[in-house]
Amino acid sequence: MRKVYIDYNATTPLHPDVKAAMTEDLEIFGNASSMHASGRLARARVEQARLSVAKLIGAGNGTVIFTSGGSEANNMVFNTMRSLIKKSGGRDEILTTAIEHPCVLNSALKLKNAGFNVSILPVDEYGKLKIDELKKWLNEKTLFVSIMAANNEIGTIQDIKEIASLVKNAGAFFHTDAVQAVGKIPLDAQELGADYITISAHKIYGPKGVGALYIKKGSPIFPFIHGGHQEDGLRAGTYNNCGILGFGKAAELAADEVKNYSKKIAPLRDKLRLGLTEKVPHIKINGHPKDTLPNTLNVSFPGAEGEAILLSLDIQGIEASTGSACASGSLEPSHVLMATGVGPELAHGSIRFSLGWGITEDDIDYIIETLPPIIARLRAMSTLSDCA
User: Would you call 326 a catalytic residue per the annotation?
Assistant: First the structure.
């Protein structure tokens, strides 16, 4: 049976060059904290990977520390802000948006439940933070603002450079979760001006279980995991040699490929959007019409339930998603779509197609051919649909 994987925002396959590099590096078994030859070799490879990750995001003289992934990196920043509130000289307000990744929203909620002053800012119908709204919220009490660079479900890209400038002018710290943006659109930490940037290896054709946090020079950071001296005492635990080395190779490849990513992927995404719009009546395209990731298409199908669509696609070998992989198994409608004004029923009937380097034009044709009869069948079976 034909297989079409179109869920690249959930995770990406290992790039063949990354797999080859990791296989080779399995022989480098030394502990990167050891002083003997095997340890020094492992440490040299870790530092080489760090340079590759730093180059990918334009880290300049900022610090890049390795973590177990994006969630840990984000939690580390929020944990730092929790400690800073007590030393901030009156600054105690934290701002984020309603469409953030669950690891950011739940970190913010944890602080709010502990009595800290946390505000969740609304977005417009396209998932964009309104700049004028942010200006109203920023004041002399604001300590920290966290806003993702690009949304994982609908692909909307935020005006991070402008947002960071406003936040810094207000005297606050700024963090952006750039896990979905890195490798798909150009990103330069020095140009953006963010204090903290989170990225993850498995979104750029690297291994799972390893991520990184960029910290601007002079910005405070406190350990989230305590123990040994690794990462200059900021992140304890034996180095994940194989994962880090794979991350480094993936970052090296992504830095070379990002300039061609949109040119190759966006036309395929646009073809899928046009094909579905022409062949399936009464659908809604979610996300910003222009400021969006070149690989992401989120579509609502009134009268058809999302999980039923996914199962039907899966039977035909097409692997997509109803939204964030981190929310898989939840019966709640997408918090991202709800924040943009999409109602619960429509949100439950939404599918995320996220493209990657492995997608071909034939794959897009196959989806356009396969999906319309699935939607027609499900709508005909639904007692709630008026779209049949």
Answer: yes
